[in-house]
TrEMBL record:
Its EC number is 4.3.1.19. This is L-threonine dehydratase. GO terms for biological process: isoleucine biosynthetic process; L-serine catabolic process; L-threonine catabolic process. It comes from Escherichia coli. GO terms for molecular function: L-serine ammonia-lyase activity; threonine deaminase activity. It catalyses: L-threonine = 2-oxobutanoate + NH4(+). Residues 268-340 form the ACT-like domain. The gene is ilvA. The lineage of its organism: Bacteria, Pseudomonadati, Pseudomonadota, Gammaproteobacteria, Enterobacterales. InterPro entries: ACT-like_dom_sf, Ser/Thr_Dehydratase, TD_ACT-like, TD_ACT-like_sf, Thr_deHydtase_biosynth, TrpB-like_PALP, TrpB-like_PALP_sf. The keyword Thylakoid does not apply. Belongs to the serine/threonine dehydratase family. Its cofactor is pyridoxal 5'-phosphate.
Amino acid sequence: GLTEEQKAHGVITASAGNHAQGVAFSSARLGVKALIVMPTATADIKVDAVRGFGGEVLLHGANFDEAKAKAIELSQQQGFTWVPPFDHPMVIAGQGTLALELLQQDAHLDRVFVPVGGGGLAAGVAVLIKQLMPQIKVIAVEAEDSACLKAALDAGHPVDLPRVGLFAEGVAVKRIGDETFRLCQEYLDDIITVDSDAICAAMKDLFEDVRAVAEPSGALALAGMKKYIAQHNIRGERLAHILSGANVNFHGLRYVSERCELGEQREALLAVTIPEEKGSFLKFCQLLGGRSVTEFNYRFADTKNACIFVGVRLSRGLEERKEILQMLNDGGYSVVDLSDDEMAKLHVRYMV
């Protein structure tokens, strides 16, 4: 616990997610000032929640690691007590109590999938499960663009990622913690990474199946579970995934809705050059064989040709996408498949 002197000076932490809210809430209960440093790109709903719990928010840095550096600097300058967001035994133990609740609900699990940012939740869950039910496999799930644990496991020690993606901002950490890495390396059974499309598809699954709205990092474990099942052809097992957050801005759901079709291989995004003449788009649509066009952007190229950006609904996934590409090529069209192009996905509504 905190000494009276520490309480008088207050506490400080850095977080882009639930830890920020937990520190703000606990500090308010203790009557202690809490300064929470959050990245400037943090979702408004998280910032508002921290302030609602009584915490003071300082927005600083492009990512968690820059916010953390600022928080540590302020703790040294102004006498705040630094509360680590993940790399501390007490924090790891506290997050690990989630596993105890999980086992109380269902002790007959075969595998548990847990999201990884700094590794506190994964380390705590893995340690507790292996102490109580060692036969249960614990699988870590990371976002491909912020997979600091996988990088550390490959290197044999924690390393800094050159950059981190911010879509799943709650797990956007450049470097795994030293203590969390030690525990994850010892107690985790496996690790898997997923891309943003898979996360979006998992968010959709949660909404359709149980009417739960998760943030990207919250749906991360489900995305990993789906991919793991497909890769290992798992059947007849009892699986659990940890839904770790629902701090999503409402306006961000549109972006998720657009991308989840790609994540489920239900849409192809194509850049096609067609003749600049009357009826050419009709002929193009006829060649598609009655498939639904989900997106259409037109750009004049010259007097002879036009460039179109088109989305096509798929019913048979990757196989059908390949058939469409072959059909368009055979029909004499110049076509580029943008379905896996990150820039196209990010700016699909604006590529005119």
